[in-house]
Amino acid sequence: MFPYIYLLFLLPVLQGCLVVQTPKCECPILALSSSNIAQNVGNHVFYQNVSGYPTASPVVKSEDCSVSMYCEGDYSLVVFDEETATVLGAYSADGICDPRNQKWQVDTGSGAGFTSFDRLFGICVNYVPTCACTYHVINNDAEAKELLSSHVEWPMLSTYKYSTPTLNSETECPTSFECQEGHEKIIVNEWFSIWEGITTFECMSDTKAWTVGLYPFPNKAYLVIGCYKTETCESSIPCSYKAVENPEIDLANHHFYQTNISKYYHSPPQTILSETDKCRLEFADCVSPYALILLDDYDRVLVHLKSWGNVVGKCLAGSKWLVYNQYTFKQFNGICVDFTRLRASDP
Ligand SMILES: *[C@@H]1O[C@H](CO)[C@@H](O)[C@H](O)[C@H]1NC(C)=O
Ligand SMILES: *[C@@H]1O[C@H](CO)[C@@H](O)[C@H](O)[C@H]1NC(C)=O
Asked: Where is the signal peptide (predicted)?
């Protein structure tokens, strides 16, 4: 079809060339882009079908009076004529300019032969937009396991019950989300989770990085978005804990007590119990220069550095503590130790 039509149009041109002056091919053509689209087709009825999506400029190849306009990648070609608009999708608009009336004859790939266009104003539209930043949505417990089982906080995250979040997005990336009643929001990245005070987040498309609240996440860091419910204890804490007052009794067999703590001044930390969740216990940060030391029943020791704030322990299944959302303790012992003051050795 194409060569035949091409010849048909070329013939008069060649004849004209021989007889009088060759009419020039000056059919209107424009590769639209995000910066010139509103100005050129902003009033077109089809403009709203394009404006909400990511766009790119089409590639235009022309030779004499013929032209080929197409999009690369996942983009769909949309051509705006004066009154109508044609979605060519992955097809290219192969047109020939008829110099006698300066109208385009275009093969739109529909199989219906050539269509006449007064102008060829094209834009590439991504109707299936993808967010430049990586994110995953947790819809249920199985997906949480799939996405998070190698996460450092999995011991904590695995205790939650997950449900589907509803994403809010005005662009190709979500900016916030909602949870069903009774469910809490959680955002997890490669290193930690945030589950309090989350309101919005934003994909920085230039760096492909997320900013969540006030935290800018490093390049390429992913987000996992979900809603969860946590089991709470109705009555008193079933796991064992102690704000240690007499370490010589309570920690007598502990290696770290024998070799270290016993040499320094110490005092018990304050404990804070949750009103609503009887499975939750906090050791308050010790008053300087004391450092908070957390000890398990036997060997495990965590030195909690100053200014980190309180330490939260969560009693899981009534038998073990989860500390810093990562470590499990059979016994949750806290003691404040002043490493700056050695005790005078007993006589
Ligand atoms: C264009 O957008 C309108 C309104 O959003 C919609 O009703 C219509 O189906 C769209 N047309 C095409 C061809 O996408
Ligand atoms: C005791 O442990 C603290 C914290 O790790 C350390 O700074 C200090 O040097 C230790 N003291 C002794 C005597 O081992």
From this structure: 1-16
Mean pLDDT lowest for which of 16-30, 123-137, 328-342?
16-30
Query: Are 259 and 311 found together in one domain?
Result: yes
C-alpha of residue 342 to centroid of ligand 2, in Å: 11
Query: What is the number of residues in the chain?
Result: 347
Q: Looking at the structure, tell me whether residues 121 and 142 fall in a common domain.
A: no
Which atom belonging to ligand 1 lies closest to the Cα atom of 85? Answer: 13
Residue 13 lies in a domain: no
Q: Whose CA is nearest to atom 10 of ligand 1?
A: 49
Q: What is the mean pLDDT of the chain?
A: 84
Please tell me the predicted confidence (pLDDT) of residue 276.
82
Best of 44, 45, 48, 49 for a ligand 1 pocket test (most atoms within 8 Å of beta carbon) = 49
Q: Does residue 325 register a pLDDT over 80?
A: no
138: Cα within 13 Å, side-chain hemisphere = 30
Question: For 14-53, b where at least 16 C-beta lie within 10 A, e where not — what string?
Answer: eeeeeeeeebebebebbbbeeeebeebbeebebbeebeeb
Range of the domain at 58: 29-125
pLDDT, position 346: 53
Rounded distance from Cα 295 to ligand 2 centre (Å): 14
pLDDT in tens, 297-322: 877 888 886 667 899 998 887 678 98
Residue 158 domain-assigned (yes or no): yes
Cα(284) to centroid(ligand 2), Å: 21
DSSP string, 221-282: --EEEEEEE----SSS--SEEEE-S-HHHHTTT-HHHHHTGGGEEEEPPPEEE-SS-TTEEE
Establish whether residue 339 lines the binding site of ligand 2, counting it when its CB lies within 6 angstroms of any ligand atom: yes
Q: What would you report as the CA-atom Rg of the chain, rounded to the nearest whole angstrom?
A: 34
Is there a single domain that holds both residue 61 and residue 150? no
Nearest residue CA, atom 5 of ligand 1?
49
Question: What residue's CA is closest to ligand 1, atom 7?
Answer: 49
